[in-house]
Write a structure and sequence with these properties.
6 helices, elongated, alpha+beta, four-stranded antiparallel β-sheet, 287 residues, 31% helix, three-stranded parallel β-sheet
């Protein structure tokens, strides 16, 4: 009877064993831990002072005390990280912040954009690697308010607003835009686009012109003579596309006289208590 009881207990223990998968190891791997330790050592000169009694950052110290919530991507690079820094660090100084951000950008991997969120109350910096912006969105009518021009797209962490778009495959998207507000009350009524050849400056200006034509007139002065704006010749609302020196000079002189005429007409209408004429209210864009 005793041997039978032992056999029954052994069989029950065998049948009741845990057949589930082995629990996954928590925390970073050995290679990831080495990356975090290297990053910690690089941050020591930025977050340490000799007179600190119990420094958070010291050569040979423990990175686990200050580097938390690490997330790595499929290539083994840091995608997110929380950095705790000492209270005496001058996080209110833009240059001090910039030095730390440049170091993190170099150590976490170049070729990507990062978002840095400084929490001055908690002495904590949160780093997030931003996903690449979509590159397959063609020119299209943007849903904006009057006087707004979409200059491009940005990350969801930058703005809270989105605009409905359609990508090259016809998929509907809601993407955060970079919006330029124009008009009489705009604090920045002029736009300067600077870039090397092939960087997309002409593409951006063509997109601005297409949006401007929805409610205004456009005069194009192509000083480079590259022919990048010949697609606007003959369009409704396009007053001219000038590439030569004589035509460009004449167009700019006309634009100056037209601007003066509009200002005088608007001033006379305001003094008379009347609405400005339609040709004065219609925006005039000079590209």
């Amino acid at each position: 009877p005793v041997s039978a009881l032992v056999a029954v207990l052994a069989a029950a223990a065998w049948l009741g064993r845990d057949r589930g998968p082995a629990p996954e190891e928590s925390g970073p791997s050995e290679e990831q831990a080495a990356r975090l330790a290297s990053l910690y050592e690089a941050l020591v000169p930025y977050f340490s002072v000799p007179e600190a009694p119990d420094p958070l950052y010291a050569h040979g110290g423990e990175w686990q005390r200050v580097l938390g919530d690490p997330v790595f991507d499929e290539h083994g690079r840091l995608a997110a990280l929380t950095v705790t820094y000492p209270a005496y660090f001058t996080d209110g100084d833009p240059e001090s912040r910039a030095r730390v951000e440049r170091l993190l950008h170099a150590k976490c991997g170049r070729g990507r954009e990062y978002h840095f969120a400084w929490d001055e109350e908690a002495n904590r910096l949160t780093l997030t690697a931003l996903s690449p912006l979509p590159t397959d969105i063609p020119a299209q009518p943007f849903v904006t308010s009057p006087g707004e021009v979409v200059l491009g797209l940005t990350d969801a962490l930058a703005v809270r607003r989105t605009v409905p778009l359609v990508d090259a495959r016809g998929t509907a998207l809601d993407v955060p835009p970079v919006v330029w507000r124009t008009g009489t009350r705009s604090p920045e009524p002029h736009l300067l686009v600077v870039g090397r050849p092939g960087s997309g400056t002409s593409t951006l200006l063509r997109a601005v012109a297409l949006q401007a034509l929805r409610g205004g007139d456009v005069l194009v002065v192509d000083g480079g003579g590259t022919g990048d704006y010949t697609c606007f010749v003959g369009r409704d609302g396009v007053l001219g596309v000038e590439c030569g020196l004589t035509g460009a000079l004449g167009s700019l002189e006309w634009a100056a006289r037209e601007t003066e005429r509009r200002l005088l007409a608007a001033n006379r209408a305001r003094q008379a208590g009347e609405a400005p004429p339609e040709d004065v209210r219609r925006p005039l864009w000079v590209l």
